[in-house]
């Protein structure tokens, strides 16, 4: 019973964040009626008291659900009591963070490995290098389905020691695709997984010459696939990254350069140059 309430809340949260993503890509005038209907239908299945609490939190901030990370609320950092940690793990009751009031849940899926520190204090990272690196560039994706290319990109994140389990990461990203595809048109797709806590945002970028059909607003196969892991606390920043990348890669000069890249290093040069002004 309680587990299903928490699952419903998590799905509602996901839909709300998807709506925010759509707004940031498609602009404020876009038609949101389909996703609005899904959100209303999901909200109507909640117990009235739970729904009221959800709406109250939503008015403050669109992040209503906070994943637990090392026994703490990942949004405000408040450490939970042992009894609360147990209750969250067992899904026995809806546990609110004692500090920020958000609903705490136990995230499943891949775990962050370790934040990669700069090699020296002089290696100040700017722009895209804050979230990505040359070893996360796949200039020639082989997969022919969203699950296959997501798996290739997830594997690059595991090899580069960003996450511990590419298979779990892929599974979570495919589950997210099944709610609403992240193909946004202009041959771009933005698969992602939220709730990979304990580190920063990470971005792997792949180019598929054949193209892969992602569901979503896109009618044509996606050639440019941006795969992110997003700690919940930086969800708002992710929307800016999304807008910056989609702005850069709707321009022919950047798309053509990405298609011509014949090595990870060449693709890294393309994304660095393309986002120089859109990502500060
Ligand atoms: Zn909190």
Q: Explain this structure to me?
A:
The protein has 280 residues and is α/β, with parallel strands linked by helices. It is 43% helix and 15% strand. The chain has nine helices and ten strands. The chain has helices at residues 2-26, 33-44, 48-60, 82-90, 146-159, 166-179, 235-248, 252-260, 264-274; strands spanning 65-69, 72-73, 95-96, 103-105, 137-138, 183-185, 188-189, 192-194, 202-212, 222-230. The strands form two sheets. Strands 5, 6, 7, 8, 9 and 10 form a six-stranded mixed sheet that branches. Strands 2-1-4-3 form a four-stranded mixed sheet. A hairpin with a 2-residue loop joins β6 and β7. The longest helix is centred in the N-terminal third of the chain and has 25 residues, at 2-26. It is globular. The mean pLDDT is 89.
In short:
Helix content is 43%, strand content 15%. The chain is globular, with a radius of gyration of 19 Å. The protein has nine helices and ten strands.
Order of SSEs: HHHEEHEEEHHEEEEEHHH
Average pLDDT confidence is: 89
Largest sheet: 6 strands, mixed
Give the class from helix and strand content and strand pairing. Answer: alpha/beta
* Content of β-strand: 15-25%
Give the helix level as a range of percent.
Answer: 40-55%
Low-confidence stretches: none
Radius of gyration: 19 Å
How many strands?
Answer: 10
Bound molecules: zinc ion
Instruction: Give the overall form.
Output: globular
Q: How far apart are the first and last residues' alpha carbons, in Å?
A: 46 Å
Helix count, per DSSP? 9
């Amino acid at each position: 019973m309680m587990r299903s309430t928490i699952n419903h809340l998590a799905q509602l949260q996901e839909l709300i964040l998807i709506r925010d993503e759509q707004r940031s890509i498609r602009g404020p005038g876009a038609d949101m009626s389909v996703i609005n209907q899904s959100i209303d239908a999901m909200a109507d299945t909640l117990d009235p008291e739970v729904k009221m609490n959800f709406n109250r939190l939503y008015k403050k901030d669109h992040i209503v659900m906070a994943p637990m990370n090392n026994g703490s609320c990942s949004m405000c950092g408040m450490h939970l009591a042992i009894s609360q940690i147990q209750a969250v793990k067992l899904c026995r009751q809806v546990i609110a963070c004692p500090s920020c009031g958000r609903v705490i849940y136990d995230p499943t899926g891949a775990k962050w490995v370790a934040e990669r520190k700069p090699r020296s204090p002089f290696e100040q990272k700017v722009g895209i290098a804050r979230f990505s690196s040359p070893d996360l560039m796949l200039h020639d994706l082989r997969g022919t389905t969203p699950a296959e290319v997501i798996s290739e990109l997830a594997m690059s994140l595991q090899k580069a020691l960003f996450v511990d389990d590419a298979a779990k990461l892929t599974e979570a990203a495919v589950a997210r695709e099944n709610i609403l595809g992240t193909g946004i048109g202009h041959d771009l797709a933005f698969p992602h997984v939220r709730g990979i806590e304990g580190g920063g945002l990470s971005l792997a970028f792949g180019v598929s010459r054949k193209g892969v059909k992602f569901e979503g607003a896109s009618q044509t196969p996606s050639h440019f696939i941006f795969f992110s892991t997003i700690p919940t606390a930086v969800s708002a920043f992710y929307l800016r990254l999304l807008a910056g990348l989609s702005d850069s890669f709707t321009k022919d000069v950047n798309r053509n350069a990405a298609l011509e890249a014949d090595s990870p290093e060449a693709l890294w040069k393309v994304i660095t140059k393309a986002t120089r002004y859109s990502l500060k």
